[in-house]
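Design job #97: recover the sequence.
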């Protein structure tokens, strides 16, 4: 079950468009496990030692906070990656979060 859930997470994250963000909870719900936002984080964190090119920097918490930033090898890397894609960041939060939010249910399924 865990591996199947993780694979669903990776598939969804791979589709997040450049310049957009989505949430751990949104991904968990679409992957069939509503309320399992932390498991999404664990799934993404499990890839850090593998040469996988997923745009995990585009996944934030429900308030637009960059809660996974410490997993990117530096405090500012997640913010820099998002800023380079045109996402406005102030401190550790996406400014105007709703403008950048990507709802995968509207585009994937």
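Job complete. Output follows.
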């Amino acid at each position: 079950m865990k591996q199947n859930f993780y694979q669903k997470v990776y598939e969804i994250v791979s589709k997040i468009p450049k310049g957009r963000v989505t949430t751990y909870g949104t991904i968990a719900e679409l992957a069939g496990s509503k309320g399992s936002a932390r498991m999404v984080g664990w799934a993404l964190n499990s890839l850090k030692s593998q040469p996988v090119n997923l745009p995990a920097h585009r996944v934030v918490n429900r308030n637009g906070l960059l809660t996974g930033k410490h997993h990117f090898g530096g405090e500012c890397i997640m913010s820099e990656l998002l800023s380079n894609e045109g996402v406005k960041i102030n401190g550790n939060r996406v400014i105007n979060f709703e403008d950048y939010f990507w709802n995968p249910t509207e585009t994937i399924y």
